[in-house]
Amino acid sequence: MLMNFGPDYVRAIAPYQGGKPISEVAREFGLDEARIVKLASNENPLGVPESAKRAMSAAMADLGRYPDSNGFDLKAAISAKFGVPTEWITLGNGSNDILELAARSLVSPGQSVVYSQYSFAVYPLATQAVGARAVVVAAKDFGHDLPAMRAAMTSDTRLVFVANPNNPTGTFIEGEQIAAFIDSVPAHVVIVLDEAYTEYLSPSQRYDAFAWVAKHPNLIVSRSFSKAYGLAGLRIGFGIAQPGLTDLMNRLRQPFNVNSLAQAAAIAALQDEAFLTKSAEINARGYRQLTAAFDQMHITYVPSVGNFVLFRAGEGENAGATVNLALLKQGIIVRPVGNYGLPQWLRVSIGLPEENEAFLVALKSVLA
Ligand SMILES: *Cc1c(COP(=O)(O)O)cnc(C)c1O
């Protein structure tokens, strides 16, 4: 007899679907790995910064020992760069870890978590993993409808996720509106403001969410080293919150959740302003390249401030899946977003100029 192990809410989870790895596409479609272009996971097309490679080489000698569980040096570097006290910092195995720590430390089974339609796929996962009830608020123009999200909160709501910029849509909300939303959220609800793409914002779009943490004991701001910092494979991110929340998350955190190489690389990457600037420049150029071609091809897309663009693959019910398969056969990996409720759309990460070009050439041939 087949046993149903575990709670119902765990069995109900649809596992995360990541971008297909290059090696898998090469095997499946009989392609040469070197000719495959992966624009599926919003990774930095420049790869790992040289500064981080050097720091990792130096850190190799100590890999026989456990990492610094408290991440002393990295927290000092974050504190120095952003002007936040080290007591506010939680290091995570990717910022994904921070999102999960927030849910696990704050929400009990049956309580509710609010997030937007078309927002990051980890929010439903983190919510379901703790047996909480998801309150998914309809998106407005593919972005968060903050007044509706505020209105959806009840006495049993414990957490709200807000991604700014949002993934997979690339939408952005002005800092003033986010600040007003945070002010309006009741004290029993914790806000996770997920800023995984904040480094790509233009100077005029920037706002300082860390300054808001001082005023709001119910705010966690999360940041990632996976996108603009080029360290996705190392798995490292961090959260900024007042000591009340930081202390709570620390109780559930695995003692050694961030490995030594990741800590060393992150310190170097944080201080590598030239790499960050170059990443933002390459991204802005790639965005213009992709959207100019979309305009020319009469392809609908959602204007994005991130390092990716959501575009409409066609009118057919499953146009996204169809076009995706055709692109895969040509060695181009993008991200289908049917699991986000967007079966006619695809998300393409912004790559190097030649990668964007290869994608556009393939897309033209597929749509012809
Ligand atoms: C990529 C991403 C993250 C998490 O990335 P990590 O690699 O876990 O740091 C978090 N939020 C959003 C919206 C993302 O797109």
Give a verbal description of the structure.
The protein is of the alpha/beta class. It has helices at 8-11, 22-29, 50-59, 72-82, 95-106, 122-129, 146-151, 175-184, 209-215, 243-252, 260-271, 273-296, 319-329, 353-367, and strands at residues 37-38, 89-92, 112-116, 133-137, 157-163, 190-194, 219-224, 237-240, 301-302, 308-312, 332-333, 335-336, 345-349. Helix 3 runs antiparallel to helix 11, helix 5 packs across helix 10 (243-252) and helix 12 runs parallel beside helix 14. The chain is globular. It has a 7-stranded mixed β-sheet with strand order 2-8-7-6-5-3-4, sandwiched between helices. The chain has a 4-stranded antiparallel β-sheet with strand order 9-10-13-12, with helices on one face. Strands 1-11 form a two-stranded parallel ribbon. It folds into 2 domains: 13-47 and 274-367, Aspartate Aminotransferase, domain 1 (Alpha-Beta Complex), CATH 3.90.1150; 50-270, 3-Layer(aba) Sandwich (Aspartate Aminotransferase, domain 2), CATH 3.40.640. The site of pyridoxal-5'-phosphate has 13 residues, from helix 5.
Key features of this structure:
2 domains; binds pyridoxal-5'-phosphate; 4-stranded antiparallel beta sheet; 7-stranded mixed beta sheet; globular; alpha/beta; 368 residues; 15% strand; Aspartate Aminotransferase, domain 2; Aspartate Aminotransferase, domain 1
Determine the N-to-C terminus distance: 52 Å
CATH topology of the largest domain: Aspartate Aminotransferase, domain 2
CA-based shape: globular
- Number-wise, the strands total 13
The computed structural class is alpha/beta
Figure out the total of helices: 14
Give the biggest sheet.
Answer: 7 strands, mixed
Residue share in β-strands: 5-15%
Helix content: 40-55%
**What small molecules does the structure contain?**
pyridoxal-5'-phosphate
**Element order: H for helix, E for strand:** HHEHHEHEHEHEHEHEEHHHEEHEEEH
- Ranges where pLDDT stays below 50 over 5 or more residues in a row are none
Which value, in Å, is the CA radius of gyration? 21 Å
Strand order of the largest sheet: 2-8-7-6-5-3-4
Please report the first level of CATH classification, the CATH class of the largest domain. Answer: Alpha Beta
